[in-house]
Amino acid sequence: MSDVRDFGASGDGATDDTDAIRHAVSDGDGHLFFPKGTYRITDTIELPLGSRGPRTVLGESGNTCIQMHGAGPAYRMQGHHEGTGDPGSWTPEVWKSETLPSIRNLVIEGHHPEADGIVLDGVIQPILEGLLVRRVRHGIHLVRRNRNVIVSHCHVYHNTGAGIFLDGVNLHQINISACHISYNRLGGIRIERSEIRNLQITGNDIEYNNARSHPGLADEPTAEIYVDTTALGATVNEVTIASNTIQATNSPEGANIRIKESAGGTDRPPGLWSITGNVIGSQEVNVHLTGCYGILLSGNTIYSCSKRNLLVEDSRLINITGNSFRRHTPKYGTGVQLQRSTDCLISNCQFYDEAETGQESKASLLELDTCQRINVSSNQLLDGAPYGVDVNHSSDVRITDCMITEQRKTKVAQGAVRFTGRGERNQLRSNSLLGTVEIDAAANVKR
């Protein structure tokens, strides 16, 4: 490997090492080693793939710090892959000299308001591992086209933009695992204007990604995981979010997970998602789905919201199974709402508002508003206020085999179930109900 000090870098934190590192890139063996030290740079270190074989950038396990004192990314890795993940679409040159580039074991710090961490463009099978990226704008920024990306064992921490930003990128196959992604103002993992397939987000700690820890900067609506597919041509499908802690502090229009599509938007709305086995909590809305099609939300602990634990709008084929919805502290509430959504299942979930006075959001535990073909079965809904289940202007709603009760010493709930507005073919059968049932005649409910 090429030791950057052999090319004139000092690593003393005061000398501008930009030119020396560029010298090592252009004249070294393609593998850069940064010994222990602090390397001050004032411009982007370009890492062009192809001409000199795979690039490796390696630090000395937490003892190597790159301080970016200029605008733009500290490193830009530029490849030439224009194919897909299919090996037959790769050129011989890409196979030979561009696969498996890596950046490992570095600290990257921003010392300029427009400094970024790492940009990947046209890269195939890159590995980013063992990094701490802090005090930059965007930590890890993927643009244009990339394939088979692995980001693991990284700390992406306290940045003014997004932690990991998939920005106008065509990207298939990306794994983000075992990372700590926190205190990033515009979201932990943020996706905009992109075509994404096969995204795996597993085993991470993703927390506090909003403006609270960035005094003086604007507080913009965001989320720990923020996915916006409203731009023309943007689609995000085939996604797993599993075994993460996804927590926050309440922020205006904030969410822990937000998947956002225009109502009636694209012919490929966000779908083929599995959100499973996560701990999700403490935001205005914990999980917010808009314009989605075909999402499984199962086995999660979802707690403490100022508005809703789960808000589903203008969506179809949402399967909500085996989740725990509850509050964690008295100042928060709990509850689930579906609006203008069809063909959804809600089963084997527990909804629990522990407060003696009723939840602060003043919303029923489960609300269905202008929905159709919703099957609610085998759930336990405890201490709802004003109601356990509240259905309005909905048809083909079937509520069966649920326990809906209030166990407070002082009763707060107005009733167990309420149907209001016009509806057709609704059913309320085989439930254990403690509390009144209110049904408008126009709702057409069979009991």
List the helices and strands and how they pair.
Blueprint: E1 2-3, E2 12-16, H1 18-27, E3 31-34, E4 37-41, E5 45-48, E6 56-59, E7 64-68, E8 72-78, H2 92-97, E9 102-104, E10 107-110, E11 115-124, E12 127-129, E13 132-134, E14 140-152, E15 155-157, E16 164-177, E17 180-182, E18 189-192, E19 195-202, E20 205-207, E21 223-228, E22 235-242, E23 245-247, E24 255-260, E25 271-276, E26 279-290, E27 293-298, E28 301-313, E29 316-321, E30 324-326, E31 336-339, E32 342-347, E33 350-352, E34 366-369, E35 372-377, E36 380-382, E37 387-392, E38 395-400, E39 403-405, E40 415-420, E41 426-429, E42 432-433, E43 437-439, E44 445-446
Parallel strand pairs: 1-3, 2-4, 3-6, 4-7, 5-8, 6-9, 7-10, 8-11, 9-12, 10-13, 11-14, 12-14, 13-15, 14-16, 15-17, 16-18, 16-19, 17-20, 18-21, 19-22, 20-23, 21-24, 22-25, 23-26, 24-26, 25-27, 26-28, 27-29, 28-30, 28-31, 29-32, 30-33, 31-34, 32-35, 33-36, 34-37, 35-38, 36-39, 37-40, 38-41, ...
Provide a descriptive summary of the structure in words.
This protein is mainly beta. It has a single domain, classed as Pectate Lyase C-like. It contains 2 helices and 44 strands. The model has no long low-confidence stretch (mean pLDDT 94).
